[in-house]
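Methods — Computational structure assignment.
A single polypeptide chain was analysed. Its primary sequence is given first, followed by the predicted tertiary structure written as structure tokens.
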Amino acid sequence: MRYSVMENNFELIKMLFEKHSGEFTDRRKKIHSTTEKYITLIMVLFTAVNSRFVDITHDLKILFTFTIIIVMTVVIYMIYKDNKTSLDHAKIVNKISNELGLWKEGRSLSPLYDSKWNTFGYENVLKGILHHLIVIVVITFTLILSLFI
């Protein structure tokens, strides 16, 4: 009887591990997708605004600048929120792995994991998205600067 209870718990733990590792992966994909879509949008706008076929008045340039800064802020917030959520799922994966004893010395699976996996999910929330944020800010301000040059 004890074996079936342990087997049921193992199936539950396995299901939770798969769910949270999948959620972690999905959030990371969403961060990359959001960044790619924003960069594509900015590049299209950059091309349109800097073409000789479109003549934009100064007031429209100011309005466009404020609008794009608001959009950039929303995108950065979405990426930050998704990264925080992905780290929450990573912490759960880490806790499940710890409960299974995967990090402990002498366990058969411990050599598969690097020591950095002990802190999986506990990184600084900006560390994994810093390059995304830098690219978004630089491209946005390049577009804005190109409006007024």
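Note: The CA atoms of residues 30 and 140 lie 20 Å apart.
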